[in-house]
Each structure stands twice: as C-alpha cells, then as structure tokens.
Design brief:
This protein is of the alpha+beta class. Helices cover about 30% and strands about 35% of the residues. The chain has 2 domains: about 1-30; about 35-215, no CATH class.
Length: about 220
C-alpha cells in the first residue's frame, strides 16, 4: 500500500479547515441579494403592469457602486392613466449617489416644486411619507414620488436609514433597501392634483408589495 506523505496530509487538513471556515462565515454572514421582481404582482387593484426592458448601458449606469438589481415597469389603469415605477435594490444606504430629482434636471426637466406627500398603504393600516417633485419640459409636466423601502419600513431618505441602522447596530449585511421612483407625465398647465391623487392610489398598492418582497 503506498504511503501518504505528511505534506499531503497537512495540505488536505488546511484545505478542509478553509472549506469549513468558508461555510461557517457564509452561514454567519449570508450573501446580500435582491428579491426577484416576480414577487411584485403585475396586477395591483385596477392597475395592470408591463415590464420595461433596460438596456445594458442603462443597467450599467443604474447598478454602479453597491446597487444590486433594478427593474422598471409601467402600470396603467382602466382610464388610461400611467405610472412608471423604477425599483432599485441597494446593498446599503451609502449606495445612493444622489437623489432622483437630480436625474430630472439632467434629463432637461426644470424643477418647479420639491415637497412631500402622504401615501395611505393598502392593507398596512398606516401611511408612508414620500418625496414629491414636479417639473416642466416643453409642453409636458412630470410628477415624481420617491422614497426608500427596507424590511422594517418606509423612509423619505437613505440618511434616515443610515442613522437608524447605526443607532441599532445593524450589520452592514442587513442594510439592504430599495429606492422606489414613480413618475407620471401630464400636459403642461394641467392641475396636477388629480395626477398626485392617482399616483398615491397606485403607490399605496405598489409599496406594500415591495415591502413584503423584502421580508
């Protein structure tokens, strides 16, 4: 019977210990992943959604620096009103490079209002505070809601989550969150209160589903 060299046995022992330690730390600190988009229904009350395929260039821009995944959908109600919803899953709050209204100005929109709005959440028995931004470009006006969703709630800014996570000593591996950007466009000069109302109706159905998908 051939003899097994001591060095070989040591190498096997070291390799075995490395595999064991890797499994231990993998179990202790799980991989950070984003939930699949399929967890969020295409049908939300009277709103019917469809996927918007992002190009590779768009995904590369969206998923830079600590952003895990993103998907975009357009939802439409029976009256033909549409809301574009972009969901970006973040590995940690610091992955927010800038707030979404800066993307509007970069796209040529002139910001006319930066405020907040309250969204009653369907089935949650509570409301969420979202950022409200309006802007104009040519003969169109845009209305935008944006906020952040984590497994433990809804916040208007990533900074609020960072402070809360720090206060509670939450591990970096447990700081995943989603940035939700919802927009609709209307003719310039139109009273935007109706648009804000139907966006709130949509958001009140969409946000609880995002929250549930992260549990």
């Amino acid at each position: 019977m051939p003899r097994v060299g001591g060095r070989f046995l040591i190498a096997v022992a070291v390799l075995g210990s490395m595999v064991g330690m890797n499994a231990y730390f993998h179990a202790l600190v799980p991989d950070v992943t984003a939930p699949p988009p399929e967890r969020i229904p295409m049908e939300l009350g009277d709103w019917q959604g469809r996927e918007v395929k992002l190009s590779e260039d768009q995904l590369a821009q969206v998923l830079a620096g600590g952003r895990l995944a993103a998907f975009e959908r357009v939802y439409q109600d029976p009256e033909g009103r549409m809301v574009n919803a972009i969901t970006i899953y973040l590995e940690r709050p610091e992955a927010v490079h800038h707030t979404p209204e800066r993307c509007l100005t970069g796209g040529g929109w002139s910001i006319s209002r930066v405020s907040t709005t309250t969204i009653p959440l369907v089935g949650e028995g509570e409301a969420a505070e979202a950022n409200l931004v309006t802007g104009a470009k040519g003969d169109m006006e845009i209305v935008e809601f944006f906020l952040f969703v984590s497994p433990d709630g809804f916040r208007r800014s990533a900074l609020q989550s960072m402070v809360d996570y720090s206060r509670r000593g939450v591990s970096k591996r447990d700081q995943t969150m989603a940035m939700i950007i919802m927009t609709t466009q209307i003719a310039a000069g139109t009273d935007d209160r109706e648009a804000i109302a139907y966006m709130a109706d949509f958001a009140g159905r969409f946000l609880p589903e995002v929250h549930s998908s992260m549990q």
